[in-house]
Structure formats: structure tokens, C-alpha cells
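new request in #modeling-help
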Amino acid sequence: MKTTTLTLRKLKGQRPIVAATAYDAITARYAAAAGVDLILVGDSVGNTLLGFDSTIPVTLDMMVHHTAAVARAKPEALLVADVPFVEAHFDFKQVLESCRRLMQEAGAEAVKIEGGAGLAGKIARIVAAGVPVMGHIGLQPQQVRNLGRYRKFGTKPAEAEQLLADALALERAGVFAIVAELIEPILARTIAETLKVPLIGIGAGVDCDGQILVCTDLLGMAPEAMPGFAHAFAAVGDEMKKGFAAYVMAVRARKFPRQPPPPP
Ligand code: KIV
């Protein structure tokens, strides 16, 4: 059955929501078949698949391209696309146009916008226009040039208070869920308990209403680049290395295509 924003809201308090990123059709198919509730086409495509060192070079055109690929998999999971660097800070008409492209051209069913109370007014208008929005508080990777580094949020009282205020402002603006990235776990629990909408954590402890991970991390595709809070549930990178090496050896030894080796 197709997962909607309503499905996710109803899951709060019932069972943890499972979310993961995907950037292409085949990965989306695997994720949805495994029962992932929400697929995020994250702007993390920049530093996972595209070889950039942050999400900042990711453009709206890139997001449309990757979101459309995931949409072609027709996943049962809710398909959410990131609004990339700076786009959400343009005037309302331009932000709405970005959301329109992600939904009408690419097939996203909702968008995610990084930012807190400062963007709540604009997010309320976007939601009113018919665009479901997921918030994103705590570490906002699009702010990395201001921050200087990726760090944990909410360890100091003033910052903790601001994060709770951000979450409540986003909820009032009408978001259907909020991603909490690298938020101190006890604070994340308080925020989750305070909100009516689900708080989906990444590096924010076990007491959020769900978890989201980047697919290349959870699949173990690039263990050397994996953040400390993530976990590899498979070793796809090792399997890829083995597969390519076996192919190279078979071709060089003229064993393929004459005598293809047995499948692993
Ligand atoms: O871009 C992304 O993958 C994200 C997740 C880390 C939540 O925003």
C-alpha cells in the first residue's frame, strides 16, 4: 500500500518509521521492497555518489534528475526530495517554483527543507500551496561553510532551547515530519515527546519516532567515509570490489565469455 504523509503521522507512537536515502531507481526498488517507509532523495547525493566534498554544489537540476530516477521505480515508500543549497532562501515565488519542479517534473511527493523558525513563515505558505514539507533541524549540512565543520547540536542550553522552538515553529507551519540531525539524544527525545508530528533522527539517539540513514552508509558502500553515528548493515563495497576483481581476472585469463565462472 502506498505510504503517504498521513501514514507517517499515524505511525508516531505505533512503531519507529524507517527512512533511507536513494538516488536512483534500482536502489529505490531494493529499499521499498525491504519495507522502508520513506525514501529521501537527499542532496547528500553530492558527497555520496557525485564525488563532491559537501552538499553545496548540488543544484536543483541535479535534484530533479535524481528524484525522477527514483520516481521511475514507483516505490510504495513516500518519496521526498531535498530542496538544495540556498533555494529555500529565495523569494516565495522562486521557492514555490523549485518545489513545483521537484513534484511535477520529477515526481516527488513531498520536499525537505533545511532550516528552523526563520523559515517557518515561508514553509507555511508552501504547505498551503499544496506541497507537503518535511523540516530538518540540528546539523544542517547546507550550513557547513558557516559552521566550519559538522558537529553535534543541542549540548548547550541556549541552543537546546532554540532547537525546541525551531521544531515547534515548523510544526505550527504545517510540516508532516522533521529530521533531527546530530541532536543530543536526550534533547531529541524531549523534542519527539513534545511534537505531534514524527521526529526522524539521524545521529540523534534511539528515542526519535524513526531513523533515517544515507543508503551508501547503511549498505557499507564507502566505509572509509562513514560518519561515526552511522552503521553498515551490509558490505556492498566489499562485494563490489570482489565482483569487479573476479570480472577482471576472468577476462584477462580468457575464461569469460567462454567459461563464465559460477555466480557467487
Ligand atoms: O541529504 C540527506 O541525505 C539528508 C539526510 C542526512 C537526512 O538530509
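bot summary: The domain at 5-235 is CATH 3.20.20.60 (TIM Barrel).
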